[in-house]
Structure formats: C-alpha cells, structure tokens
Amino acid sequence: MPSFRGGSFRAWLFAIAHNAITDAYRRRGAEPPRQGDAFEVADPASPPEQVVLLADERRRLSRALRLLPPDQRNVIERRLSGIPSVEVAEILGRSPQAIRALQLRATRRLQTLLAGSSTGPEGDHG
Fold first, then answer.
1. Residue 20 to residue 30: CA distance in whole angstroms
2. CATH architecture of 48-116
3. With 80 as the cut, is the pLDDT of residue 34 above it?
4. Which residue among 56, 76, 101, 126 is least crowded, i.e. fewest CB within 10 A of its CB?
C-alpha cells in the first residue's frame, strides 16, 4: 500500500499481478504468455435469448403463485427467499410438519399449473 500513488487502485493491483506473473515465468526460464496468447474471457452476461426465457419463466411462476391458497403461497414465497422451513414455521406460527405439508401441496400445485400451459397458468397468450 505505501507504493500506491493514487489513480486507479484496480489498475495498480493488476499491474502488480502482471509483474509478479512475469517475474515468476522468468525465474523458471520460460517466456511469459503474450497478451494474444491468453485465453479469451467469457462474457459473464447471459445471452439475450436466455434473459427473455428467464423473464418469461418468472412471469409464469408469479402468475402461478397468485393462484395458490394464501397459506401455501406464504410458505413458497418464504422458502424461495431462502428462509429455512423451521424458521418459516416460527414466522407463520405453524409446526415444521405443517410447513412441510403445505410446501409439498404447493409444489405439486405449482407443477400442475406450470405444466398445464406453455403460455402460463392462466392460459393467456399475450
């Protein structure tokens, strides 16, 4: 850190890393790879087609969730948000067994709703 003189901290760190790698190759008597020899870095963004498909699946799931009875929907929404079933039971004032049963019924109902139509659980086409 004492050698950092301002500017882009990220660029400074990358320069240090680059120099360390170059030095390591030279110590082994090997030539460091040239920039053009490096593997191409994959674009971390999802392809546009996948983004559209995921958005459609989210809409379908949202519609299907609205069709569930409120107690089932509450369990599924909390489980989807990452809350463990034991905590969901505490939050909703139910036993863990009751939460597991509600979750099972809700999951089966969602599967039926989502499988029933490729356009969505309500059967709309637009």
1. 14
2. Orthogonal Bundle (1.10)
3. no
4. 126
